[in-house]
Amino acid sequence: MTDITFAETVDAPETDRDFDDRLQLVLLVIEDLFSAVFMAAAAGRTAHVEVPDERTANLFRTALKSTDRYRPAERLVSFVVRS
User: Fold this and answer.
1) Structural domain boundaries in the chain
2) Dihedral angle at the C-alpha atoms of 13, 82, 44, 70, nearest 10 degrees?
């Protein structure tokens, strides 16, 4: 029995660059986004996540907006674009 089931499969990337981009995104989620959500939930205050660009910030905002109905602490995560 699996604890988590993904709704879609991810096709194999066409190039090494695609793979590297996806890998960096997954690492950012694991290392920074999960930690920020946990800190926001534990502290009850805004946690800031630094992201490399506005596109990534929008992607994460959209993802959290789609789940914040079930996990209200996700509303407390803010994204700062690295300058």
Assistant:
1) 16-81
2) -30
- DSSP secondary structure string, the chain? --S---SSPPPPPSSHHHHHHHHHHHHHIIIIIHHHHHHHHHHSS-EEEEESSHHHHHHHHHHHHHHTTT-GGGGGEEEEE--
Q: Which residue has the tokens 């920074």?
A: 32
Render 28-51 in DSSP notation, one character per residue: HIIIIIHHHHHHHHHHSS-EEEEE
Q: Which of 73, 70, 69 is nearest to 41 (CA)?
A: 73
| Per-position pLDDT tens, the chain of length 83 | 445 455 555 565 567 788 888 888 888 888 888 889 999 999 999 999 998 889 888 888 888 888 878 888 889 999 999 88
pTM of this prediction? 0.68
